[in-house]
Amino acid sequence: xxRPAAYVRSGVARRLEDxxxxxxxxxxxxxxxxxIEAGLDASAGNxxxxxxxxxxxxxxxxxxxxxxxxxxxxEALSELLARLLKAAGREAPVHAAARSLKRYQPGGETVRxxxxxxxxxxxxxxxxxxxxxxxxxxxxATVVRLVAVPPLATCAARLAGRIPEPWSCGYCPVCGSWPLxxxxxxxxxxxxxxCGRCGTAxxxxxxxxxxxxxxxxxxxxxxxxxxxxESRKAETCVTCRRYLKSxxxxxxxxxxxxxxxxxxxxxxxxxxxERGYGRPPASGYRVTCRVAPA
Length: 294
Ligand SMILES: [Zn+2]
Ligand SMILES: [Zn+2]
Description:
Elements lengths: L4 H18 L4 H15 L5 E4 L18 E4 L1 H17 L17 H12 L3 H10 L4 H11 L1 H11 L21 E5 L4 E5 L6 E3 L16 E4 L8 E6 L4 E8 L5 H10 L1 H9 L15 E4 L1
Parallel strand pairs: 2-9, 3-8
Antiparallel strand pairs: 1-2, 3-4, 4-5, 6-7, 7-8
One zinc ion binds next to loops.
């Protein structure tokens, strides 16, 4: 049975409160997620996709957003960005980097460019925009990547039926990001990778490194509390020194649940980093797409 929206929302609110209690330094991040939760339901996610029809097998490794024009409700996204900048700015006394965001009010064309850069994983453009407007590049990039979540989620919903099966690349078949988590789904423990940016889910092979394709068992490992290893662990690869968290889930995680679960399992990130494993630095495939006003 489907849960009523109000029930789901109250569950999210409770988890956000728990997170804030557990790690007070995350208050800024929690405030941003609260705004994104509202943005996922609102017109910030209104998009139209335009692009040449995809010719089968012409570029089998290219994610579906590659070559598309994404028409967005720029006004709604500008408003969402303003709310996020305000939320981040409130934490300025705690996070020095957020101080520069406090009075930042980019115009419509800058917002469009920033969202396009976030979707295309174009870090140099984001950094140049931040430096030109004298704001902290890392803080701005964090906020802008979140603003891109609602339109990306809508793109993913529109394109879900066109994902090639099987999709054997490690990165997201819609937007090219590396997965945020692996879900071990249902009693069969099907391994499903999840994109944190657009929310896409795609099936993946067991005992194969998502990033480098390593399949030799002695190169692959798992970190986590012994009593919880079946339900939450960091899967590691000695060959590329990267890790991916995997979480048991009876039903598919909602998009915001993915972001929350990532925060709630930070002890796995700590364990992986302590042993010299890292997350990949950028996207698995840099898509080229254009963001335009609707
Ligand atoms: Zn994606
Ligand atoms: Zn690897």
